Backbone:
């Protein structure tokens, strides 16, 4: 499995309420997204970093998303370019389904 960490370093803090509102407005766009298995949104405690952790079927699916119109849309929404990091995830533990 592959996951990506995408984050945005903001110049002014985003409150938890603001982040929740933004995340809830974009979450429906990811339902049924090709190759995307799971997405978690995050916000740092100081509100200066927001982003998402995306779990993908493969790297091609991630790259197809990040090289398309997605990049311009998120840059416009957050006012800064995203930082995208790729990670292999060969083992995972999920206590919800033990």
Residues:
């Amino acid at each position: 499995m592959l996951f990506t960490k995408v984050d945005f370093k903001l110049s002014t803090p985003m409150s938890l309420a603001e982040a929740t509102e933004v995340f809830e407005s974009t979450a429906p766009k990811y339902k049924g997204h090709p190759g995307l298995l799971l997405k978690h949104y995050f916000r740092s405690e100081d509100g200066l970093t927001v982003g998402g952790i995306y779990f993908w079927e493969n790297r091609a699916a991630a790259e197809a998303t990040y090289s398309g119109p997605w990049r311009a849309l998120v840059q416009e929404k957050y006012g800064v370019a995203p930082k995208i990091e790729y990670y292999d995830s060969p083992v995972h533990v999920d206590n919800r389904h033990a």
